[in-house]
Design brief:
Elements: H1 2-25, H2 29-40, H3 47-63, H4 68-75, H5 79-88, H6 90-112, H7 120-132, H8 137-143, H9 148-157, H10 159-180, E1 188-191, E2 197-200
Antiparallel strand pairs: 1-2
Helix pairs in contact: 1-10, 3-4, 3-6, 4-5, 5-6, 7-8, 7-10, 9-10
Length: about 210
């Protein structure tokens, strides 16, 4: 009986790990889809187009309740670059402010209705991407909108969240091994509008 119980538990754990690995592997699926669509249209992604997408991601993150650091992480840029964009582009700054105001209003409505509040899926995506990128869990949790204590509580209460964090760490370890073997380091070609191609990496300031 004990052996059967152990085997059943092992099956459940293996399924959970496989599920979590699949979720983490798909964190960047939208970016891959966008590149495929550009290719289907016979186009190459330009720096201007990519920055437009990143600004849209930042606004979306703000609308979902993430703070400046979380919005920057969701957009794949530094917080400094996000602030620079807002300083240079009043319309973008206004969009960010409106999105943050909407999130605050929705949060207040949820509290009045005694509905669950918190960073949600958008925040968890930010946390997982940060952990996968080598950020320590407390810092990653803060990017996603959690305090260290509240995130530890969430991880204890949710086996799925714990499995996703473990999968993000496994993905990080695999990436580091690939780098040591001289594998791809994440560079790709992006066209600067009306100019030559230049190599860039996600998160690099432009």
């Amino acid at each position: 009986m004990d052996e059967e119980r152990v085997e059943r538990r092992a099956v459940v754990v293996n399924r959970l790990e496989a599920w979590a690995d699949g979720v983490v592997a798909g964190l960047d699926a939208q970016e891959d889809v966008d590149r495929s669509l550009f290719h289907a249209l016979g186009e190459r992604s330009t720096l201007r187009a990519e920055n437009a997408v990143r600004r849209a991601e930042a606004v979306r993150a703000a609308a979902l309740g993430l703070g400046p650091a979380g919005c920057a992480a969701a957009a794949g840029i530094s917080e400094r670059l996000l602030l620079n964009w807002q300083a240079r582009e009043p319309t973008f700054a206004a969009a960010m402010a409106a999105a943050a105001h909407m999130a605050a209003h929705e949060g207040e409505r949820a509290r009045l209705a005694a509905a669950p509040t918190g960073p949600g899926a958008a925040g968890l995506r930010v946390v997982l991407r940060a952990v996968r990128g080598g950020v320590a869990q407390p810092t990653a949790a803060a990017l996603g909108g959690w305090s260290e204590r509240s995130f530890l509580r969430l991880r204890r209460q949710s086996p799925e969240v714990a499995a996703l964090l473990a999968a993000a760490r496994r993905a990080r370890a695999r990436a580091r091994r690939a780098e040591r073997r001289g594998g791809a380091r994440g560079y790709r070609l992006v066209r600067v509008d009306e100019g030559p191609f230049e190599p860039t990496r996600p998160g690099v300031d432009h």
